[in-house]
């Protein structure tokens, strides 16, 4: 949720009833019980995504491809528990709540030409 500051001003000098009030709002900041829950912008998520190591990138791409945790673990030579832990750490660092949001993020990054094609 955003906190807004709004300004209103009468425009009597125009002398047209269709233009009698001008309203302008600006975002002051985000309001949330827990500041960490605030959604990161795409640019912020991209910056965080770039700090992830190659294994994390591989995990993200395999999740996007619909691979199971077991298949991901076999590919990157880690245990399934390690993959689950890394996936949770990735989601936390990117401000995501569910694994499907990793897929959505990668699609958005690809659509905005911030990363190469997923496949």
UniProtKB/TrEMBL annotation:
Pfam families: GerE (PF00196)
SMART domains referenced in this protein's UniProt entry, alphabetically: HTH_LUXR (SM00421)
MF annotations from Gene Ontology: DNA binding
Database matches in InterPro entries: Sig_transdc_resp-reg_C-effctor, Tscrpt_reg_LuxR_C, WH-like_DNA-bd_sf
GO-annotated biological processes: regulation of DNA-templated transcription
Domain HTH luxR-type: 49-106
Name of the featured protein: Two component transcriptional regulator, LuxR family
Species the sequence originates in: Rhodopirellula maiorica SM1
